[in-house]
Amino acid sequence: MNTADRNNRTRPEQMSLRKKIADSAWFNRSVEGLIAAWIRFAHDSSSWDRIGFEPMDEALRAGEPVIVALWHQRLMMSPWLFDVSLGRICTLTSSARAGRLAGQVQARFGFDTIAMSSHKRHVALSREVLGKIRDGYSIGIATDGPRGPARIASTVPLVWARSSGCRVFVVSFSANRVLEFPTWDRMWLPTPFSKGVLMCREWRETVPRKPSEEEMERLRLSLQAALDEVTDASDHAAGRLTGA
Q1: Is 161 helix (H, G, I), strand (E, B) or coil?
Q2: Could you read off the pLDDT of 92-109 as tens digits, one per residue?
Q3: pTM for the whole thing?
Q4: Do 211 and 162 contact (CB within 8 A), yes or no?
Q5: Contact between residue 190 and residue 46 where contact means Cβ atoms under 8 Å apart
Q6: What highest taxon heads this organism's lineage (predicted)?
Q7: What number of other Cβ atoms are within 10 A of residue 229's Cβ?
């Protein structure tokens, strides 16, 4: 057997082995545990300012579910962007391997998750989400996730705000030191012994029951601007941006 034949035979075996490892429940639990431990240690060893969360916290104490929106890049600190001691939350994740991993990490911090799938019809997903809201769950969503483009808001939170009447809050984290991954959104992972900021603002627009296409686009751009503003403000507060 020549070298080319051996290489052609080896590649499928290597790919099969990598897939088996990636699909292994033990492997995934180990990775989830490591990520969760890193995030917890980064949070606990750092100093954090929590800014603007009072209106959302008051709503949760009153038993009012809310919609929490953020950019996918800032997803890693979501366990501290919603206080699960005040209410329950369900987040939307991708059904792909990375999305399932993210969902399981969040589950370790007390979050419920719903997997979005290209095979799941939009109507079925909306019913599932609205059912969670009726059961008292808040809903969290990376508004440009799971594949981007980065910092381009979808209309999904608007649809749920229209159907449920829930208030919408935009949140972000930032820190003076982070690890940045080479993903489509340059995902941030906080580092230990940093100085960071957790920030929340209410998006005060009202979504009408039957908005026109023009009105829906205006609201989408408004939500997108609010997400950019809270994210840039958190960067500024953490010392990552200068100026007003």
Answers
A1: helix
A2: 876 556 556 777 888 899
A3: 0.85
A4: yes
A5: yes
A6: Bacteria
A7: 15
Structure tokens at 19: 């897939």
The token pair at 132 is 């969670």
Q: Please report which helix (H) or strand (E) contains residue 162, including its range.
A: helix 156-164
| Domain residue limits, the chain | 3-237
Closest CA to 187 of 77, 72, 35, 80: 72
Q: How does 26-65 read in b/e, with b if 16+ C-beta sit within 10 Å?
A: eebeeebeebbebbeebbeebebebebbeebbebbeeeeb
List the one residue out of 90, 131, 132 whose CA is nearest residue 111: 90
Gyration radius from the chain CA atoms: 20
User: Which token pair is 67?
Assistant: 């919609």
Note the pLDDT tens digit of each residue in 13-72: 554 544 544 456 656 677 888 999 999 999 999 999 999 999 999 999 999 999 999 999
Helices (H) and strands (E) in the chain, counts: 7, 9
φ and ψ at residue 140, rounded to 5 degrees: -115, 140
Q: Are 31 and 101 in contact (CB under 8 A)?
A: yes
- Residue ranges with strand state E in the chain: 47-51, 67-70, 89-94, 112-116, 138-142, 168-175, 178-180, 188-190, 195-203
Who's near 100: CB < 8 A, 6+ residues apart?
Answer: 28, 93, 94, 115
Provide CB contacts within 8 A for 52, sequence distance 6+.
Answer: 199, 200, 201
The one-letter amino acid at 42: A
Task: Tell me how far apart the alpha carbons of residues 133 and 13 are, in angstroms, rounded to a whole number.
Answer: 46
Omega before 149 within 30 of 0, i.e. cis = yes
